[in-house]
Specification:
Layout (H helix, E strand, L loop, with lengths): L18 E6 L4 E6 L6 E7 L7 H17 L5 E7 L25 H12 L2 E3 L14 E2 L6 E2 L2 E6 L6 E7 L10 E6 L21 H4 L1 H19 E3 L5 E3 L2
Parallel strand pairs: 3-4
Antiparallel strand pairs: 1-2, 2-3, 4-8, 5-8, 6-7, 9-10, 11-12
Amino acid sequence: MKSTLGTGFVVSKEYKGSIMEFKPINERISTLRIRVRLFNITLICVHAPTEETKEEVKERFYEELENVYDGAAGHDVKMILGDMNAKIGREKMYKPVIGQESIHMESNSNGERLIDFAVNRNMIVSSTYFPHKRIHKMTWGSPDGITFNQRDHVLVDRRHGSDVKDIRSCRGADCDSDHFMVRVKYKQRIANIRKAKGVRQKKYRVKELKKDEGVTKQYCKEIELEIGKKGIQENSDGNTVEEK
């Protein structure tokens, strides 16, 4: 009997109004877009093929995942999370993409495939970045209670990597599964713009506005002129177009 797969999201009623769109792509991939104050978030929930699955099935899965990722809104924060069926190691050659906190020393074939996807989409495997006890890194346990793996992962766009504050498994949560619940702490922020080294920052003499009424009037006049220039533009045909 063929097993039936599926992915989805359980959302608290508190955030129901923030849901912009849910898309069930196929039995292995679904997406949820959430409205957030700074950047909207596209969550991509996946259930990847196992290590023993035929190569052509894995290829189709990652081709579909690439299409889903590329089809997400460009300015959204994109996060991929779920059962990747992949062991991520601690290889130094993968260090720009992975952390050094995995419970595995070497990546398996699925792990290398996942890392390759992250490299091509400028993402990081954020779930291997945080130091925790071994029991808080394991995400799957065998029925006999002997074998444990870390094969559920979270990927995030590199430019938003620092927004992920922590990832760990919660073994106490009973969800009737051989997988453990994985908790992600996430907080959006705007990066500070640092002054380039050797570049002198221009200072404005704003105090002069209070001292001299003539300077104040001239300043207001020039501001109004600049606003007027931006409000009226000429199109390529020479016609005048006023922006509203």
